[in-house]
Amino acid sequence: MSKIAFIGSGNMASAIAGGIIKSKTVSPSEIILFDKNEEQYKKFDTECKKASCAKEAALCADYVFFSVKPQNIKDVLSEISSLDNTGKVFISICAGITIESIERQLGKVKIIRVMPNTPLLIGQGVTALCKNEFVTKEEFDFVSSLFSSSGYTTEIEEKDFSALTALTSSSPAYVYLFAKSMLTGAQKLGFNPSDAVLLVCKTLIGSANMILSDSRSLDELIRMVKSPNGTTEKALDVFENNNFTDIVCEAMKACADRAEELAKMN
Ligand SMILES: NC(=O)c1ccc[n+]([C@@H]2O[C@H](COP(=O)([O-])OP(=O)(O)OC[C@H]3O[C@@H](n4cnc5c(N)ncnc54)[C@H](OP(=O)(O)O)[C@@H]3O)[C@@H](O)[C@H]2O)c1
User: Fold this and answer.
1) What confidence tens digit (pLDDT) does each residue in 65-111 have?
2) CATH class, range 4-156
3) Are 216 and 224 in contact (CB under 8 A)?
4) Which CATH homologous superfamily contains domain 169-265?
5) C-alpha 158 to ligand 1 mean position (Å)
6) Ligand 1 pocket check: which of 6, 14, 36 to mutate, most ligand atoms within 8 Å of Cβ?
7) Tell me, what's the pLDDT at 265?
8) Where are the alpha helices (DSSP H) in 107-192?
9) How many CB atoms lie within 10 A of CB 47?
10) Which of 14, 101, 113, 231 would staple 43 via disulfide (CB 3.0–4.6 Å)?
11) How far are the Cα atoms of 98, 116, 163, 182 from residue 263, in angstroms, in the given order?
């Protein structure tokens, strides 16, 4: 069975490891952890092994996750660059860190770049992956399967990573903002926000599932809710008069531009 190391054992690493263990793709004893902060190990299955440094973790594993914050990856790369890394597959989940910047420190090794989102923490993530030319299809499929145990996965080209940040990585925050705005609206209409949260979230989930399962277009789905001169039309008029679609597009463009800027800095 393949051994998997996590260098950086925080929130994302524990969610990924949890998904892998739950799906029985890898047993906990095949997982090796290293984190500067030993408190982090409490989030993991007690059978996971602990390494004393990044080098030891990488040395013991076939698949090595870089799951530190982006500002810490340089230290990790410089620590393991002296190892013979041939044959290992490195997986970076660090936002804005390109494959090329990792190759600059590690040379021509197998690298998979991954962008998960935070719903992965509850097994409902969306994860995009891309690889360099040294990774085989079997290795790539194996790494994809590690993420599909915590949600949906898709392969994209690395050039699309910045744009995808706006679609899947930052976008949970837009949804939270929309939910928060609806809760503020609910409060103004006399609801207690703690009572309204379940109603609002169930409506968001049901509506998203309706988009996915119903063959009708989004315009048709909107028309199903909206009757002429009815209540929904009044609400949608307010959104339209305030350029709701333009605001969302502008926000997504700002997000993608910033992701591109950050990728160029690394
Ligand atoms: N959270 C998200 O929404 C999200 C989404 C997609 C991708 N990501 C990416 O996922 C990565 C991890 O994020 P996270 O939220 O899981 O971070 P996190 O909970 O802060 O975990 C990172 C851990 O790495 C440790 N660390 C720092 N430098 C280290 C080193 N040189 N060697 C070993 N461990 C080290 C940190 O310790 P200290 O705290 O003591 O420094 C911390 O315990 C980030 O690169 C982020 O860009 C996050």
Assistant:
1) 999 999 999 999 999 999 999 999 999 999 999 999 999 999 999 99
2) alpha beta
3) yes
4) ProC C-terminal domain-like (1.10.3730.10)
5) 21
6) 36
7) 81
8) 137-148, 161-164, 171-188
9) 11
10) 14
11) 6, 16, 12, 34
